[in-house]
Amino acid sequence: MASLDPVLDKDGVRLTVDEATATVTLTNPAKRNAQSPALWRALTEAGRSLPGTVRVVVLRAEGKSFSAGLDRQAFTPEGFDGEPSFLDLARGSDADLDATIAEYQEAFTWWRRSDIVSVAAVQGHAIGAGFQLALACDLRVVADDVQIAMRETSLGLVPDLTGTHPLTGLVGYARALEICATGRYVLAEEAERTGLANLAVPADQLDDAVRDLVGALLSAPRDAVIETKALLSGAQQRTYEEQRAAERAAQARRLRDLAGAGD
Questions:
Q1: Which of 114, 118, 168, 247 would bridge with 176, disulfide CB 3.0–4.6 Å?
Q2: Pick from 232, 217, 219: which is nearest to 117 by CA?
Q3: Do the Cβ atoms of 125 and 147 come closer than 8 Å?
Q4: Which pairing describes strands 56-61 and 117-122: parallel, antiparallel, or unpaired?
């Protein structure tokens, strides 16, 4: 792969852009890409820095682990340099705590924007916040060594980085509750079988599999993909008849655009 100058490279996050494809890479393998507020702000900035030409965003991580989750330093009295510790946050007002968590969540929300398709390439550990970051993407390709777990409950916490909605949508309420409440590992075969992963491949084939998927995503016209994503993402909130109407309206827009392009 050709080396690209990064658009952003800070706090464990690097963003590169190659025409219609952007790659966001977690770059702290020595700490298994553990997450912090600074990393979350960098992820938010990466989303805001995407050029309008980007159609597909790949999320990947350096090293053997995708992300081992929240850096435990957050729970120490010292916290991170220049950051309030989580213990200090807990002593603040409800409004301040809510606003802070909402800011953290912004790192996880932009991956499902209507104008892009996001793909997470997941190897090794994807724990807690790491699992939720993978869930933030539209699609997931996992290596056969993947170990996924939602460990927040074992720490006396809840998953609060936007992961509960996609998890429940993918595997259903009962399995989502069991995964979160037990904190157990989900391995590659189960991830693919239950829909957590679109594809599971040998670890040495992960990059190639993601590259093939990106190529396939880029092969269709952009506007058709955007309309289709909007139809599918809203389907669960619509009745059957409402979805039929949404399909008709979307198709009418596409036909008019195609007819206009032919004039």
A1: 168
A2: 217
A3: yes
A4: parallel
- Measured between alpha carbons, how far is 130 from 150 in angstroms, rounded to an integer? 9
Q: What would the two tokens of residue 45 be?
A: 């900035």
CB 236 within 8 A of CB 169: yes
- Residues in contact with 129: Cβ distance below 8 Å, sequence separation at least 6, in sequence order: 35, 67, 69, 70, 161
Q: What is the pLDDT of residues 7-60, one digit of tens each?
A: 999 999 999 999 999 999 999 999 999 999 999 999 999 999 999 999 999 999
Q: What is the DSSP letter of 130?
A: H
What is the value of pTM for the model shown?
Answer: 0.94
Decide: 71 and 35 in contact? Cβ < 8 Å: yes
Count how many residues are written for the chain: 263
Close Cβ partners of 115 (under 8 Å, ≥ 6 residues apart): 55, 226
Contacts (Cβ under 8 Å, ≥6 apart) of 30: 63
- Residue 121, CB-side half-sphere exposure with 13 Å CA sphere: 27
